[in-house]
Amino acid sequence: MKKALSVPVLMYHHVSSHKGALVTITPENFESHAKFLSDNGYKTLSLDEFLAFKKGELELPKKSALITFDDGWIDNYLVAYRILKKYSLKAAIFVVTDWVERASEDKRASDEIYIPNHREGKKLAYEEPASAVVNWDDLEKMRDVFDFASHSNAHDNEELGMDEWRDDLALSKSHIKAHGGNTKHLCWPRGNYTPELIDLARSLGFEALYTTKRGVNLADNDTSEIKRISVKDKDAKWLKGALRLYSSPILGGLYARFKR
Ligand SMILES: [Zn+2]
Questions:
Q1: Residue 77 C-alpha to ligand 1 middle, in angstroms?
Q2: 241 C-alpha vs ligand 1 centroid, how far in Å?
Q3: Of 97, 106, 234, 239, whose CB is crowded by the most CB atoms within 10 A?
Q4: 141-196 pLDDT tens trace
Protein backbone atom coordinates (compact mmCIF):
# COMPACT_ATOMS: atom_id res chain seq x y z
CA MET A 1 0.00 0.00 0.00
CA LYS A 2 1.20 3.49 -0.77
CA LYS A 3 2.08 5.49 2.27
CA ALA A 4 -0.40 8.28 2.95
CA LEU A 5 0.97 11.73 2.38
CA SER A 6 0.13 14.92 4.20
CA VAL A 7 0.96 18.21 2.51
CA PRO A 8 2.05 20.95 4.93
CA VAL A 9 0.56 24.39 4.31
CA LEU A 10 2.74 27.21 5.63
CA MET A 11 1.17 30.46 6.81
CA TYR A 12 3.20 33.66 6.54
CA HIS A 13 2.08 37.29 6.94
CA HIS A 14 4.94 39.80 6.86
CA VAL A 15 8.52 39.48 5.64
CA SER A 16 10.33 42.58 6.87
CA SER A 17 13.16 43.75 9.10
CA HIS A 18 10.82 44.73 11.93
CA LYS A 19 12.34 42.03 14.08
CA GLY A 20 10.03 40.89 16.87
CA ALA A 21 6.93 42.50 15.31
CA LEU A 22 3.75 40.42 15.28
CA VAL A 23 3.44 37.73 12.57
CA THR A 24 6.67 38.87 10.95
CA ILE A 25 9.69 36.94 9.75
CA THR A 26 12.95 38.68 8.89
CA PRO A 27 14.15 38.60 5.27
CA GLU A 28 17.18 36.58 6.45
CA ASN A 29 15.09 33.84 8.03
CA PHE A 30 12.64 33.88 5.15
CA GLU A 31 15.48 33.43 2.69
CA SER A 32 16.79 30.59 4.82
CA HIS A 33 13.35 28.91 4.44
CA ALA A 34 13.28 29.50 0.69
CA LYS A 35 16.82 28.18 0.25
CA PHE A 36 16.01 25.09 2.31
CA LEU A 37 12.93 24.31 0.19
CA SER A 38 14.90 24.82 -3.00
CA ASP A 39 18.06 22.92 -1.93
CA ASN A 40 16.00 19.98 -0.74
CA GLY A 41 13.95 19.66 -3.89
CA TYR A 42 10.58 20.66 -2.45
CA LYS A 43 7.74 21.13 -4.90
CA THR A 44 5.90 24.31 -3.90
CA LEU A 45 2.34 24.07 -5.13
CA SER A 46 -0.15 26.30 -6.86
CA LEU A 47 -3.53 26.59 -5.16
CA ASP A 48 -5.16 24.37 -7.76
CA GLU A 49 -2.44 21.72 -7.49
CA PHE A 50 -3.08 21.61 -3.76
CA LEU A 51 -6.85 21.37 -4.33
CA ALA A 52 -6.37 18.57 -6.87
CA PHE A 53 -4.21 16.72 -4.33
CA LYS A 54 -6.90 17.10 -1.64
CA LYS A 55 -9.49 15.70 -4.02
CA GLY A 56 -7.29 12.70 -4.78
CA GLU A 57 -6.85 13.78 -8.40
CA LEU A 58 -3.13 14.57 -8.28
CA GLU A 59 -0.22 12.52 -6.99
CA LEU A 60 2.50 14.63 -5.46
CA PRO A 61 6.11 13.98 -4.56
CA LYS A 62 6.70 13.33 -0.87
CA LYS A 63 8.42 16.68 -0.54
CA SER A 64 5.55 19.02 -1.39
CA ALA A 65 4.34 22.13 0.41
CA LEU A 66 1.95 25.03 -0.09
CA ILE A 67 3.25 28.46 0.91
CA THR A 68 0.53 30.98 1.82
CA PHE A 69 0.55 34.64 2.80
CA ASP A 70 -2.38 36.31 4.58
CA ASP A 71 -3.66 39.88 4.11
CA GLY A 72 -1.55 41.00 1.12
CA TRP A 73 0.91 43.26 2.92
CA ILE A 74 3.11 45.49 0.81
CA ASP A 75 6.25 43.69 2.03
CA ASN A 76 5.02 40.58 0.19
CA TYR A 77 5.62 42.57 -2.99
CA LEU A 78 8.70 44.51 -1.91
CA VAL A 79 10.55 41.73 -0.06
CA ALA A 80 9.06 38.21 -0.22
CA TYR A 81 8.44 38.19 -3.96
CA ARG A 82 12.11 38.77 -4.83
CA ILE A 83 13.26 35.96 -2.54
CA LEU A 84 10.67 33.44 -3.76
CA LYS A 85 11.55 34.28 -7.36
CA LYS A 86 15.26 33.87 -6.70
CA TYR A 87 14.64 30.27 -5.60
CA SER A 88 11.94 29.57 -8.23
CA LEU A 89 9.28 28.89 -5.60
CA LYS A 90 5.50 29.22 -5.92
CA ALA A 91 3.20 30.69 -3.29
CA ALA A 92 -0.26 32.14 -2.77
CA ILE A 93 -1.54 35.41 -1.30
CA PHE A 94 -4.96 35.72 0.32
CA VAL A 95 -5.94 39.34 -0.21
CA VAL A 96 -8.51 41.55 1.47
CA THR A 97 -10.21 42.76 -1.69
CA ASP A 98 -11.52 46.07 -0.35
CA TRP A 99 -7.99 47.02 0.75
CA VAL A 100 -6.59 46.07 -2.67
CA GLU A 101 -9.33 48.01 -4.45
CA ARG A 102 -8.64 51.14 -2.44
CA ALA A 103 -4.86 50.70 -2.63
CA SER A 104 -5.26 50.62 -6.41
CA GLU A 105 -7.06 53.97 -6.49
CA ASP A 106 -3.99 55.85 -5.21
CA LYS A 107 -0.77 55.80 -7.16
CA ARG A 108 2.17 54.75 -5.08
CA ALA A 109 5.08 57.18 -5.41
CA SER A 110 7.80 54.57 -5.88
CA ASP A 111 8.85 51.15 -4.68
CA GLU A 112 11.21 52.74 -2.17
CA ILE A 113 8.49 53.30 0.37
CA TYR A 114 8.56 52.68 4.10
CA ILE A 115 7.48 49.17 5.04
CA PRO A 116 5.09 49.35 8.00
CA ASN A 117 5.14 46.79 10.80
CA HIS A 118 2.01 44.74 11.53
CA ARG A 119 0.46 47.20 13.95
CA GLU A 120 1.07 50.19 11.67
CA GLY A 121 -0.06 48.19 8.66
CA LYS A 122 -3.39 47.24 10.20
CA LYS A 123 -4.16 50.90 10.81
CA LEU A 124 -2.92 52.04 7.40
CA ALA A 125 -4.85 49.29 5.61
CA TYR A 126 -8.04 51.22 6.43
CA GLU A 127 -6.74 54.77 6.36
CA GLU A 128 -4.14 54.78 3.61
CA PRO A 129 -4.10 51.33 1.98
CA ALA A 130 -1.73 52.29 -0.85
CA SER A 131 1.11 52.46 1.66
CA ALA A 132 0.26 49.22 3.46
CA VAL A 133 -1.02 46.57 1.06
CA VAL A 134 -0.52 45.33 -2.49
CA ASN A 135 -2.59 46.70 -5.36
CA TRP A 136 -3.93 44.90 -8.45
CA ASP A 137 -0.87 45.96 -10.52
CA ASP A 138 1.48 44.41 -7.96
CA LEU A 139 -0.51 41.17 -8.04
CA GLU A 140 -0.37 41.17 -11.84
CA LYS A 141 3.42 41.68 -11.79
CA MET A 142 3.90 38.81 -9.34
CA ARG A 143 1.94 36.18 -11.27
CA ASP A 144 5.11 34.20 -12.02
CA VAL A 145 5.34 33.43 -8.29
CA PHE A 146 2.01 34.15 -6.62
CA ASP A 147 -1.53 32.89 -7.07
CA PHE A 148 -4.00 35.15 -5.36
CA ALA A 149 -7.36 34.40 -3.77
CA SER A 150 -9.84 35.83 -1.28
CA HIS A 151 -9.33 36.69 2.37
CA SER A 152 -12.85 38.25 2.39
CA ASN A 153 -13.67 41.76 1.25
CA ALA A 154 -13.50 43.64 4.55
CA HIS A 155 -11.41 41.41 6.85
CA ASP A 156 -12.89 42.60 10.15
CA ASN A 157 -16.17 40.78 9.84
CA GLU A 158 -16.98 39.57 13.33
CA GLU A 159 -20.17 41.56 13.70
CA LEU A 160 -21.64 40.55 10.37
CA GLY A 161 -24.91 38.65 10.06
CA MET A 162 -25.30 35.92 7.45
CA ASP A 163 -26.72 38.23 4.76
CA GLU A 164 -23.83 40.66 5.20
CA TRP A 165 -21.35 37.80 5.08
CA ARG A 166 -22.96 36.64 1.84
CA ASP A 167 -22.55 40.14 0.36
CA ASP A 168 -18.97 40.41 1.60
CA LEU A 169 -17.86 37.05 0.20
CA ALA A 170 -19.73 37.47 -3.09
CA LEU A 171 -18.21 40.93 -3.60
CA SER A 172 -14.73 39.66 -2.76
CA LYS A 173 -15.13 36.83 -5.22
CA SER A 174 -16.23 39.19 -7.99
CA HIS A 175 -13.18 41.42 -7.42
CA ILE A 176 -10.88 38.39 -7.53
CA LYS A 177 -12.57 37.17 -10.70
CA ALA A 178 -12.36 40.59 -12.40
CA HIS A 179 -8.58 40.60 -11.86
CA GLY A 180 -7.97 37.01 -12.91
CA GLY A 181 -7.28 35.53 -9.48
CA ASN A 182 -8.34 32.13 -8.19
CA THR A 183 -12.01 32.14 -7.10
CA LYS A 184 -12.12 28.63 -5.65
CA HIS A 185 -10.06 29.32 -2.54
CA LEU A 186 -11.00 31.34 0.55
CA CYS A 187 -9.01 32.04 3.68
CA TRP A 188 -11.11 33.03 6.71
CA PRO A 189 -10.11 36.39 8.19
CA ARG A 190 -8.78 35.97 11.75
CA GLY A 191 -9.34 32.25 11.35
CA ASN A 192 -12.96 32.64 12.50
CA TYR A 193 -15.73 30.59 10.92
CA THR A 194 -18.75 28.49 11.78
CA PRO A 195 -20.44 25.48 10.12
CA GLU A 196 -23.00 27.93 8.69
CA LEU A 197 -20.24 30.06 7.18
CA ILE A 198 -18.64 26.98 5.64
CA ASP A 199 -21.97 26.16 3.97
CA LEU A 200 -22.36 29.75 2.81
CA ALA A 201 -18.86 29.89 1.32
CA ARG A 202 -19.44 26.61 -0.47
CA SER A 203 -22.77 27.81 -1.87
CA LEU A 204 -20.90 30.79 -3.34
CA GLY A 205 -18.46 28.46 -5.10
CA PHE A 206 -15.49 28.55 -2.73
CA GLU A 207 -14.20 24.98 -2.66
CA ALA A 208 -11.10 25.15 -0.49
CA LEU A 209 -11.39 26.91 2.88
CA TYR A 210 -8.22 27.79 4.80
CA THR A 211 -8.08 27.96 8.59
CA THR A 212 -5.47 28.95 11.16
CA LYS A 213 -5.73 25.52 12.81
CA ARG A 214 -2.62 23.43 12.67
CA GLY A 215 -2.69 19.86 11.47
CA VAL A 216 -2.28 17.53 8.54
CA ASN A 217 -3.80 17.75 5.07
CA LEU A 218 -4.56 14.36 3.56
CA ALA A 219 -5.93 13.45 0.12
CA ASP A 220 -9.29 12.81 1.79
CA ASN A 221 -11.51 15.04 -0.36
CA ASP A 222 -12.36 17.22 2.66
CA THR A 223 -11.53 20.77 1.64
CA SER A 224 -13.67 22.58 4.21
CA GLU A 225 -11.02 23.05 6.91
CA ILE A 226 -7.51 23.19 5.51
CA LYS A 227 -4.91 23.18 8.25
CA ARG A 228 -1.92 25.50 8.27
CA ILE A 229 1.32 25.90 10.16
CA SER A 230 1.95 29.37 11.52
CA VAL A 231 5.61 29.98 10.73
CA LYS A 232 8.05 31.22 13.34
CA ASP A 233 10.70 33.87 12.85
CA LYS A 234 13.38 31.19 12.91
CA ASP A 235 15.74 29.79 10.32
CA ALA A 236 15.51 26.64 8.20
CA LYS A 237 16.24 24.33 11.13
CA TRP A 238 12.82 25.18 12.52
CA LEU A 239 11.20 24.78 9.11
CA LYS A 240 12.80 21.39 8.59
CA GLY A 241 11.30 20.11 11.83
CA ALA A 242 7.86 21.56 11.11
CA LEU A 243 7.78 20.07 7.61
CA ARG A 244 8.88 16.69 8.87
CA LEU A 245 6.16 16.70 11.52
CA TYR A 246 3.31 17.87 9.32
CA SER A 247 4.25 15.66 6.35
CA SER A 248 3.56 12.69 8.59
CA PRO A 249 -0.17 11.94 8.88
CA ILE A 250 0.31 10.15 12.19
CA LEU A 251 2.86 12.34 13.96
CA GLY A 252 1.39 15.59 12.67
CA GLY A 253 -2.12 14.52 13.59
CA LEU A 254 -1.10 13.62 17.13
CA TYR A 255 0.97 16.74 17.62
CA ALA A 256 -1.84 19.03 16.41
CA ARG A 257 -4.24 17.36 18.83
CA PHE A 258 -2.07 17.67 21.91
CA LYS A 259 -0.28 20.95 21.37
CA ARG A 260 -2.86 23.70 21.62
ZN1 LIG B 1 -5.89 38.23 7.98
A1: 16
A2: 25
A3: 97
A4: 999 999 999 999 999 877 899 999 999 999 999 999 999 999 999 999 999 999 99
> What's the pTM?
0.96
pLDDT of residue 111: 62
Query: For the chain, which residues make up each domain, given as ranges?
Result: 9-258
Q: Rounded to the nearest whole angstrom, what is the distance from the C-alpha of residue 154 to the centroid of ligand 1?
A: 10
CA 52–ligand 1 middle distance (angstroms): 25
Name the more confident of 110 and 54: 54
Residues, Cβ < 5 Å to ion ligand 1:
70-71, 189
Strands annotated E in 54-200? 64-71, 91-95, 146-150, 185-187
Q: Does domain 9-258 have CATH number 3.20.20.370?
A: yes
Q: How far is the CA of 86 from the centre of ligand 1 (A)?
A: 26
User: Nearest-CA neighbor of 204 among 161, 170, 165, 157?
Assistant: 170
What SS3 class is residue 208?
Answer: strand
Q: Report the chain's mean pLDDT, rounded to a whole number.
A: 94
* C-alpha of residue 157 to centroid of ligand 1, in Å: 11
